[in-house]
Amino acid sequence: MFDKVANLFIIIFFFNEFIHLVNSQCPPDFVLKPCSCKSSIPFHTNILFNNPNPEANIIQRKSIACEHIHNSSFDLQLVFLTLSSFNSLISNKTANVSDFDSFYLYNTTVKELPENVFINITFKSLMFQDNFQLATIDKNAFSYFKNHVELFETLNTNLSDAETIFSIIKEFQNLARLSMHNDRLKFIPNYAFNHKHLTNIFFGLEYSDKYQPIESIGNYAFYNLPNLQFLRIFSPTLSRINKYAFALRNRSILNNGVSNMLELYLGGEMIESTSFELTSLSRFRNRFVFIRFYNTSITYLDEDIFQPFLESNPSSLLDINPTNTLFKCDCRSAWIQYDYFKNVYPMDNRVYGYPCWDYDFAKNCTINK
Ligand SMILES: *[C@@H]1O[C@H](CO)[C@@H](O)[C@H](O)[C@H]1NC(C)=O
Ligand SMILES: *[C@@H]1O[C@H](CO)[C@@H](O)[C@H](O)[C@H]1NC(C)=O
Ligand SMILES: *[C@@H]1O[C@H](CO)[C@@H](O)[C@H](O)[C@H]1NC(C)=O
Ligand SMILES: *[C@@H]1O[C@H](CO)[C@@H](O)[C@H](O)[C@H]1NC(C)=O
Ligand SMILES: *[C@@H]1O[C@H](CO)[C@@H](O)[C@H](O)[C@H]1NC(C)=O
Ligand SMILES: *[C@@H]1O[C@H](CO)[C@@H](O)[C@H](O)[C@H]1NC(C)=O
Ligand SMILES: *[C@@H]1O[C@H](CO)[C@@H](O)[C@H](O)[C@H]1NC(C)=O
Ligand SMILES: *[C@@H]1O[C@H](CO)[C@@H](O)[C@H](O)[C@H]1NC(C)=O
Ligand SMILES: *[C@@H]1O[C@H](CO)[C@@H](O)[C@H](O)[C@H]1NC(C)=O
């Protein structure tokens, strides 16, 4: 008798929770505690660009957020073990609470993510922000749902094992956006990427304090990215661009005679005029590429590097804007004035920010014209 009452109580309890579930698409709060299920989270780009009000733009998605947790006994995997057990208790025909859009780990003292951290719960977006002690992600942490992941973002972690992190990223076959800032990744491996749908890769941002301390970029790192549109690399320790670092495999498919633009933003004070190996900027096949430099120590643009770059596609552009404070009207940049001055309107000339269109190079330079 007692058992029956208890069972009935449980059934009624779960029936109520079932109604809750259908209405909100979220499991009840006690299941996820101290994390929570949300139908919207702040749009990460707002946070990155220091928008004073990141909550203003939100992503309307079914998400799980674990925020402001500084409890050393907090066990992230236990939260998901509870959720998956809860899922197996409720009817299998009800709302699907196994598949979520985003997971957001923010302002915690979590140190590591173990193998299969989310049990059998899946996410399309994985976002880790302000977890300053997060140093380890097991190589199989996300294996269960690796084909679901479309977005992977980190900001302010202690991740330094580039070999493991990039091997995890490589498994995300449907990855579309990658955004990693202020971690401790020191290199990008050879052939790091092999993703059909990946369009945006951000390691750091211009006009901000977001960077990734990358010292070297491997050979053919971005070779197998036929749809790459945006690549940002901002690193205070990057000093060398090897011959094959930016090589692309695919010729781009022309759209009414115009190929889709690839924007390549590079920043860092150890990037100098001599940092670029011969042909390192001429392996874009026929892509229309827009290279912008920020806060570099470039003093001149070497004709042997940048002239072939400009000739690799008739639309390709360079931007050596005023953040490159050391740039001078050096004789070694005179070729730009001679060959690429078209018009007094600066945007018609293909080297934006070049301060020497009117400079009298003839006075001091030997000209091989
Ligand atoms: C981070 O979490 C701690 C502990 O919950 C809280 O005191 C602090 O205000 C949080 N920081 C931010 C920036 O939200
Ligand atoms: C820390 O987590 C443990 C285990 O989840 C819990 O029992 C304890 O109440 C939590 N402490 C605080 C201060 O939240
Ligand atoms: C998910 O995990 C729970 C508990 O670990 C288990 O009971 C359930 O059968 C699993 N569901 C699936 C679809 O694998
Ligand atoms: C679970 O799903 C199976 C197959 O769709 C069905 O036969 C079964 O009745 C369902 N169970 C419940 C409790 O709804
Ligand atoms: C939940 O959705 C996933 C794919 O979106 C599907 O594979 C799984 O069978 C669904 N589970 C239930 C209980 O409907
Ligand atoms: C980051 O990891 C290094 C070891 O790789 C360790 O010395 C340091 O204390 C860690 N920092 C934090 C904030 O956990
Ligand atoms: C890229 O090039 C490879 C090898 O030539 C080819 O198999 C693949 O279909 C191309 N992909 C695209 C999107 O053009
Ligand atoms: C980059 O240069 C701009 C303009 O000179 C400056 O405001 C900014 O602080 C610099 N950023 C870094 C990371 O040095
Ligand atoms: C030419 O070089 C001399 C000595 O290096 C320098 O003082 C002068 O300003 C230069 N003139 C121009 C037009 O660059």
Automatic annotation (TrEMBL):
Which interval of the chain is the signal sequence? Answer: 1-24
- The protein's superkingdom reads Eukaryota
Mind listing the UniProt keywords for this protein, alphabetically? Signal
Question: InterPro entries recorded for this chain?
Answer: LRR_dom_sf
Q: What is this protein called?
A: Uncharacterized protein
User: What organism does the record attribute this protein to?
Assistant: Rotaria magnacalcarata
